[in-house]
Amino acid sequence: MGFAIPEKMLAWRLYGEGMENFGDNDQPCELPVPQIRDDELLVRIDAIGLCFSDVKLIRAGEAHPRVISKDLRKNPIIPGHEAVMTVVKVGAKLTGKFHVGQRYIIQADIYVNGKGFAYGYAIDGGMAQYSVLDQRVLNGDEGCYLLPISDSMPSAVAALLEPWTCVQASYMIENRRAPLSGGRVLIAAGDDTVYAAGELLRAAKPAAVTGFGISAACGEALERELGVSVRMVEELDLDEKFDDIFLCNLTGPAAEAAARLADRGAVISFIGDYTGVSGSFDVGRIHYEGFFFQGAPGRDLSAAYGRNVRSTLKPGGCCWLPGGAGAMGQMHTQLAVENPNGPKRILVSDMDSARIANVERQLGEAIQSRGVEFKAVNPSELSPEEFDRVLREFAPEGFDDIVMLVPAVPVLCHAAGYLGKDGLMNIFAGIPAGKEGVLSIDGIVNRGQRYIGSSGSRTEHLRHTLTLAEQGKLNPVTALAAIGGMKELKHGLQAVIDAKFPGKTVILPNCPDMPLVPVSELASLSPAIAGTLNCCGHYSVATEAEINAQYGVGH
What we know:
Blueprint: E1 8-11, E2 29-32, E3 41-50, H1 52-60, E4 82-90, E5 103-106, E6 111-112, E7 115-116, E8 130-133, H2 135-138, E9 146-148, H3 155-158, H4 161-169, E10 184-189, H5 198-204, E11 208-212, H6 216-226, E12 230-233, E13 242-248, H7 252-259, E14 262-271, E15 278-282, H8 283-289, E16 292-296, E17 318-322, H9 329-338, E18 345-349, H10 353-370, E19 373-377, H11 384-394, E20 399-404, H12 409-416, E21 419-427, E22 436-440, H13 441-446, E23 450-453, H14 459-470, E24 480-485, H15 489-498, E25 504-508, E26 517-518, H16 527-530, H17 541-551
Helix pairs in contact: 4-14, 9-10
């Protein structure tokens, strides 16, 4: 199989922060198709999904943590991480490992020796007609970050697998059930109680223990129990990071400052009497850095580990999905409804009634077949008091699960007040790191409530989602809401910002002049395209072939 590779290609480049710096006069630029080295691949980008993460990247520019260019004006990047591609040229050293014509999706969270080189952020991504994949992609920390896909899956549908994977991965979070072995520990207290390390902390044999505000008697007792010296400090070093933090009857600014010293993946335990106590904590970092809060009454520092540790929705429970009819939210809602071991009572709230109607239409049959009690409500059509009454009536004992799909701290804090006993809030929406919200420490300590979150996914997660789709256990096409050509990409991103479509938007880069249309209106493009939609009106392999025949180049 051979491909005619053109000399020029279209690409969207980011020159700095802000939508005004995305593209060349609001159009893609024309660039030479890049040449490859002997250990690289040249791929044609067949589809690129548009994500709100792309919007965040464009708004942040060089300030985005995944961007390595120090000056985007001089060294612009090509965004786009939800990419589907076909190999069109193989470097001499890769012959036999890769073949022209192979189709892949890419795991964009690429690491080399522990350093991030995310595709579409640090490596030029899929908002171009062609892309070069170098050894960072082909031989990174997790091996090859490409996963093969079959010809039976349309590219526009395959582009949905990465966002579907992020959704799946958020229910596969592996929270620690014990202090980190050989880790760094901070014990900060607000009283003179002598706290006990407990079995799990003893077994972890921490490498370093710091005490702040603890009594001399407590420090001596911990040293005897742990067999390690406790470094006593009078002030916290704001640049220091810890793997496990114990806040013992410590409240107010001191507790909030201590919690900020959590390293990525840290565990923060509240120990003691916190009746009626709340605090302001960084809820954005829960999502982006994967640490979490837990608690237990008493004086045993190990007591909270293993308490209510889960990341899946409670079987037969009561679940609330704020923003559950949005582009990503409807995926969460679909999983909750279709999971045979999922919740039996599901409430979706969303500020767009058209999106709510779309979810109810898409999932109506599954809701009925599983016997789920399902309620959807638009808070903007109710007074705050009326909305609160709806929540109380639906979950009089509080919700077992709240999946936060709205990246707004006030919405999160309001929702947190409706967590029930052993309730779990999964902060899926990307609230910026550094944004703080008031959480009930009382609820964490005395009612076993937890707050968890995740950002992105690993290759094993993407492989899991791909397998589910190939086995027919996941129908990803239901999330496809709009499709368009390369020249419409910026309009597509604006549609993401405006939540114009009730689902995901996908761009076909090598169909430059295709208009941006809702999937529900694809049939209006031509009778030939209309005849390719499947019995459910969904996009199919034949649909994509006909679109490429009418609008495509290089196919």
